Amino acid sequence: MAKQAKTAIQPTRSEDFPEWYQQVVKGADLAENSETRGCMVIKPWGYALWENIQQQLDKYFKQTGHQNAYFPLLIPLSYFEKEAECAEGFATECAVVTHHRLEATKQEDGSTKMEPAGELNEPYVIRPTSETIIGAAFSRWTESYRDLPLLINQWANVMRWEMRTRMFLRTAEFLWQEGHTAHETKEEAIEETRQMHSIYEKFLREHLAIPTIPGEKSEAERFPGADMTLTVEAMVQDKKAIQAGTSHFLGQNFSKAQDISFTARDGSTQHAWTTSWGVSTRLIGTLIMAHSDDDGLIMPPRVASQQIVIIPVTPKEDTRDAVIDACLALAQTLRSKDFHGEPIRAHVDKRDLRGGEKKWEWVKKGAPLRIEIGPRDLESRKVCLQRRDQAANEKTFLDKEEFLQNVENTLQEVQDALLERATNFRDANTHTCSDLAEFEKHWQSDQPGWLVTPWAGTTEEEETLSKKHKISIRCLPLDQQDGDEAPCILTGKTTKARAIWGRSY
Amino acid sequence: MAKQAKTAIQPTRSEDFPEWYQQVVKGADLAENSETRGCMVIKPWGYALWENIQQQLDKYFKQTGHQNAYFPLLIPLSYFEKEAECAEGFATECAVVTHHRLEATKQEDGSTKMEPAGELNEPYVIRPTSETIIGAAFSRWTESYRDLPLLINQWANVMRWEMRTRMFLRTAEFLWQEGHTAHETKEEAIEETRQMHSIYEKFLREHLAIPTIPGEKSEAERFPGADMTLTVEAMVQDKKAIQAGTSHFLGQNFSKAQDISFTARDGSTQHAWTTSWGVSTRLIGTLIMAHSDDDGLIMPPRVASQQIVIIPVTPKEDTRDAVIDACLALAQTLRSKDFHGEPIRAHVDKRDLRGGEKKWEWVKKGAPLRIEIGPRDLESRKVCLQRRDQAANEKTFLDKEEFLQNVENTLQEVQDALLERATNFRDANTHTCSDLAEFEKHWQSDQPGWLVTPWAGTTEEEETLSKKHKISIRCLPLDQQDGDEAPCILTGKTTKARAIWGRSY
User: Fold this and answer.
1) Into how many domains does chain B fold?
2) Residue B354: CA atoms inside 13 Å, Cβ hemisphere, count?
């Protein structure tokens, strides 16, 4: 096709969204597949993003009184037998350790063959989540109401043997945080569940520039063993939903299975009320699908691996050193400034490559701001600024001092622009619907977006509808649970509740 | 014994050092054993220590150009077969994953039984270290000399199925960092090995207040597959050695096994020169054994979970609020101050417990400074300061302003005092020896400390001597490799080299 637009990523979003996603990940050098089935290598540019996410979330967790701790990777099989509902939810996708050594035998051709040896009496499961093993610790730690609340978070790797994997969005091993708390009263535990849910919503909106619908999962979509699951649902550019984070109120289900009991104020023995909540490296997949364009990754400034990349333009050898020195000095000045309480992350690309090559590399890597400085800019004290959220060839020439004075604002402008774009996209692709025929027709289109409907159906009715159209109730939005009364789209029963339906990852 | 000194930890160090250690860990609430064989739960007070260690080390790694990344937990068995020497070193202690799901069967009594199902074609090993899997990635990443050096670090959990475990010092699963680098030349790789070794020495000395002997491991004690292993060896209070960190020059051994090759400047194909280096949660065990006393843990201020604990003394209800408010205000002021570039970590213990109970809890937990404020101190604007490195009943009354003005110095004084004490102890228990009879007699005592001897023996001679006396060459100290010529203590051969011998963990 002679008239095809020149883009850095092939195919484009509209040509083939799933393949575009893989190419964005590759082009940005975020991660790659490994020879361990379904597991990826997170490369430095991707891991730096995770480190920023981790540090910023961790601050919110600590501000709300949570402490980090670390629990064993391997869970005794017997723990799974105790909490059958949760265990069955993960049983089909568990990595099981059955042996504790290898036996090496020399082959005839001189090579070494290794085989498992030392079979364990009781096998272990690599944690798919840690409710059971943390619950066992909580049981040891809880004697009196004075020991409560327990407010614990763990940053860890977990493993779920998924059949179909996709980098960041669904991998057999992934990195995450899992909060686990135990409380004296039901009200306190529900309040904790809601608090962490709000923190996720705020973090996604303010840090990742991703607007989400905070809501409750229907019974069919709840975490196995939970009484209530709250979720933040994001819409990405193929109009599908991604469950970006969940916060579960577990009632007394786990505390009864694991005997997390305590002597209450009245002297009686009670079971604690527990919660768990988590987000994972899936946030990175969500971020990529929400913001990136046909030129590659776009990172929101607050979590960007580098916020500003400075490219020295050095056409002549005799001015080369002076240009590079000016770039290094500018980076130093930028690093002494704060953006949201963190030193600005600035990088000078000194590599001996052509300017155009460098530029496109940083476009694909999604650096929010690019600065070019050439020999003539030294005299005029100017810089050339390019914003990743704007077209790749758009340039602004600024006095260096002016740029420095406004740089925090410029970063925030990029951040805000991304949020606004994502919010507009989400809103343009979410429609209310109260007519069943219209509802059924809607899902025949290619990228149908979301529908909001009055809903009072049963779990069975929900599952029938979901299966038929390959959709699910993403959530019952919290801010619409007290909507006007309207007839349920399926049953016609009068209801105040609304459900958001959509395809999902 | 009527006259026994009152100490918070029973038994004391001199009564039973190994049991004292367990009781210090327990009394400080750092960690506890779990039901997963050989694995511990790191509790919040212990994990905070690890977070500080991690953040401070990470800064040094990044300052020297390293980037963090993340590689799969599970290593295909075939990788172990490729690098046989290293694999055999870990083969006797590997957790092996052989199945990828569980099958639940309901028992007659209504309970659920879970059994491994879905056997894998190729089993996986939980990483005991990641040379092989990171090497496989390096092989993909290295085409030209322009791609070098690769300077990668990973913070991760690893697993070695140890038969005898001891919390922090040797556990089946532990947390660590592993640096892995690949270089164009041998010289560059050796320089990297030395650089990271120096960073470990400096970190232990300046941050953990632990003096170490930087040296080279003898061939017998080297990492399997390494051409040179550098180590930092610490002496703890039972005069044994702990290998606190190692940095390995791997030559081209791994790069040849894993084909980390590149097109060199002259167009030829070359194998890269690689290094690896690591420290682990073992540092916490070393810290405990190096500094703690019969009252419990002593944390060096730079890495302490909390640096200053403020205890409100509230004998009367009517002054209680005012005292607590004053304590909270003091903590706030302290947090606005910096100690080595980090906000001071201050905690107010508001719990409704008797003052004496609180005090002893913080003594056992090793907080470097304790501050008490009571109702009378409010009027006189005084604080009562207690230093953990001094006797538990020693108190200094200071004007609050004076305390605040000097607080960074006071913290540094505690830090320096711990380093000085540990250095004096180490020096007093390290002796030079050039006579074999004297050497052999030395190891008959209960806590023999270290001996430095001229050494030119073979690996076999070293192993014979080591076995006989249950000792090992801890290292060949770098600063004594050009010592005066002297006859080797065993063989009589003239040598400039010195070896440090000792018992070890």
Assistant:
1) 3
2) 3
- Which domain-ending residue is among B250, B270, B291? B291
Give the residue on A whose Cα is nearest the Cα of B43: A69
Same domain, B396 and B481: no
Which residue does chain B place closest to A92, by CA atoms?
A: B101
Q: In A469-500, which positions are buried (b, 16+ CB within 10 angstroms) versus exposed (e)?
A: bebbbbbbbbebeeeeebebbbeeeebebbbb
Which structure tokens are listed for A350?
A: 């000194």
Question: Residue A130 and residue A176: Cα distance in Å, rounded?
Answer: 11
**SS3 helix, strand, coil % of chain A, rounded to 5?**
35, 30, 35
Looking at beta carbons, which residues of chain A come within 8 Å of B50?
70
Which amino acid is it at A351? Answer: R
At a CB cut-off of 8 Å and minimum separation 6, what does B63 contact? Answer: none
Tokens of B160: 């070695």
Q: What is the pLDDT of residues A30-72, one digit of tens each?
A: 999 999 999 999 999 999 999 999 999 999 999 999 999 999 9
A77 contacts B102? CB cut-off 8 A: yes
Could you tell me the residue range of the domain that residue A349 belongs to? 301-413
The reported pLDDT for the residue numbered B305 is: 98
Secondary structure (3-state) at B241: strand
* Whether residue A256 sits in one domain with residue A204: yes
Q: Looking at the structure, tell me whether residues B418 and B435 fall in a common domain.
A: no
The amino acid that residue A488 corresponds to is C
- Chain A positions in Cβ-Cβ contact with residue B101 (cut-off 8 Å): 91-94, 96, 161
User: What residues of B are in contact with residue A84 (Cβ under 8 Å)?
Assistant: 104, 112
Please check whether residue A421 lies inside any domain of the structure.
no
Judging contacts by C-beta atoms under 8 Å, the chain A residues touching residue B103 are: 91
Residue B2 lies in a domain: no
CA distance A234 to chain B (A): 26
Which CA distances in Å does A230 have to A53, A139, A214, A497? 21, 25, 7, 15
Give the SS3 label for residue A122. strand
Which DSSP letter does residue A478 get?
Answer: G
Strand partners, A197: none
Residue B454 CB burial class (10 angstroms; 0-12, 13-18, ≥19): buried
One domain, residues A27 and A169: yes
| Cα(B490)–Cα(B470) distance, integer angstroms | 16
pTM across the whole model: 0.96
* Residues A505/A240, Cβ–Cβ less than 8 Å: yes
Q: How far is CA B306 from the centre of its chain?
A: 19
Q: What are the start-end ranges of the E strands in A228-375? A: 228-235, 241-249, 261-263, 269-271, 273-280, 308-312, 338-339, 342-343, 346-348, 369-373
Q: In sequence order, what E strands does B34-143 have?
A: 40-42, 67-68, 74-76, 96-106, 112-126
Reported residue count of chain B is 505
CATH code (residue B172): 3.30.930.10
Q: Is residue B165 part of a domain?
A: yes
- In this structure, is residue A422 part of a structural domain? no
Alpha-carbon separation of residue B434 from A241, B373, B457 (angstroms) = 75, 57, 14
User: What does DSSP assign to residue A211?
Assistant: -
Q: What is the pLDDT of residues B214-265, one digit of tens each?
A: 999 999 999 988 999 999 999 999 999 999 999 999 999 999 999 999 999 9
Give pLDDT, residue B353.
87
Residue of A77, A97, A116 lying closest to B114 (CB–CB): A77
- Local confidence band at B29 (pLDDT 50, 70, 90 cut-offs): very high
Q: Which two tokens stand for residue B151?
A: 């300077």
End position of a domain, from candidates B271, B291, B311: B291
Residues A283 and A305 in one domain: no
Instruction: Judge: B116–A103 Cβ closer than 8 Å, yes or no.
Output: no
Question: Would you give the end-to-end CA distance of chain B in angstroms?
Answer: 32
